[in-house]
Every structure is written in C-alpha cells, then in structure tokens.
Amino acid sequence: MLSSFARPKVNLFLHVTGRRNDGYHLLESLVVFPDGGDELAAQLADQITLSVSGPFADVVGPAQNNLVLTAATILNKHAGTQFGAHISLTKNLPVAAGIGGGSADAAAALRLLNNLWGLDLGREELAEMGLKIGADVPACVYSTPLIMSGIGEKLAEINKFPKIHIILVNSKIKVSTAEIFRRLSAPYNSASETGFVFDPSAPMMPQLLESRNDMQAAALEMAPEIDELLALLDAQADCQLARMSGSGGTCFGLFPTRAAAEQAASRIEGAHPDWWVKQMVIPANRAP
User: Fold this and answer.
1) Residue 92 sits in a domain of what CATH number?
2) pLDDT digits (tens, 9 = 90+) for 130-158
3) Cα–Cα dist 77/141, whole Å
4) Which residues are catalytic?
5) Do 191 and 142 lie in a common domain?
C-alpha cells in the first residue's frame, strides 16, 4: 500500500486579469501548499474503487462522482492500461472552501497511482492530464510554491521560497466558485495596469501587502460572515497578513513564528469551537 497527502492550495494573492471567449477567467496567483491536508492510500485491486472517511466525509458527495475516480480513469486511459486499485480517502479539509480540496485529491491520486502502477510518468505529463479534470489540478500536482497564470495551466516554480507559518480558518460555510466567477465583471486589472509584478527574489511580505484577492468582494456579498474571519485574524498579535484564499470561504493569516501562529490558532479555536481552525507550515520550496 502506498499513501500520499493532498495538501490544501492557498492563494496568497489572486488577481483576475481577463476572461476568454469560452467563459474561462484568466488569473495570476501565488499559490502555496501547507503541510498536511487530506490523506490518500491505495493498493492494487481488480477494479478501481474508492472509500471515503474523515471529518468531512459526510459532505463530500457520492463516491462515484469524486474527482479521485476521475483522475484514476484518465490516468488509465492515458497510459493505455486497465489497472485497478482500491483508494481510501480521509477527508480532513472542508468542502467548497477555496483551498482546492477536490483538486488536491485528484492530483494526489494521479501521483499515487502513477507510483502504484509503475507508470513512471513525469510531473509535467501528470499536470497535463490534471488540466482535463480542473484548472487547479496542475498546480496541485506540483504542490510547491508557484506563480499560476492563464486559467491555471501556466505554472512557474519559485525557487528558495521561505518557510512560512500559517493559520487556516473556515466557519464551515460553503461558497460556490461558479457563482463567484459569475459575479465578476470587467474591467479586469492586469499586472501591467496595476503596476504589480511579483518578484521572487525580493522580500515577499511587502509584495503581498500590495497584492489582493479579486474574488474577495464577491465572496463577501454572498457570505458577509467571511468579514468576521478576516477581522479576527487581523486582530491577532503578530499577524502579518489576513486574506481570503481562492473563492472562499477559508481565510488565512501569516505569522513570523510557529509560537505566534499556535497562540493565535488556540485563541480563535477557543472563541469559536465549531469553526475549522488549522495551524500549518508552508515548507520551503520542495517537490511533493
């Protein structure tokens, strides 16, 4: 049996720069992948099957519609094989939360089954397959700090990315990504128009403070309680940046030390025991 984590995808910034004729929006985003997340395990079997457990298993939907099975089917078709596997998914990440849980699961399944079935496919090839599943899947295949652009298919790895301490907070509200995109409208702001261009070689925090999440306003219209999460994170001692990730409703806070992040997480969890609160570490740049 082999196992793998499906790390959450966090958008430290997310700029919507345009819209294609087919309706897909163009993005530029700095995405990172804290340690932890959903857990996948797989072993050889006659057929491809999936079992789901964990704290969010009851809201993940029918197993037959899960993107993990989609990934397994696409991988078999691409390789021209008919391998089987029983895959178990422990769903630790909230659903429809702006942290790419389903995409991360699909990407982890591609990596995991690639190893289990001895296909020896490279990350670029797996990422190309991932794009057939969803725009976020290619980035999740890499699961390392990236600048993501286009609709998600253009990826540039960031070398020497620093270790960062992060808190993820979700009040367990679901936000529809499709509805967020529907509410976005022109004019869109390109990097050249805003004067913002991320420089991986320069200090990161001042650049992040100049950036934004263009989906945040639309998400606040749909779920005003997200503003409470942001205010609570921003009020924590030593919080360097509080922002929404992706299309919401998960918000994050960045902290300079593990102790500061742990203390903040403990305070928030104590005040809101029904919320999902996780203190994590964004590791220095490395392969998944």
Assistant:
1) 3.30.230.10
2) 999 999 999 999 999 999 999 888 999 98
3) 18
4) 9, 136
5) no
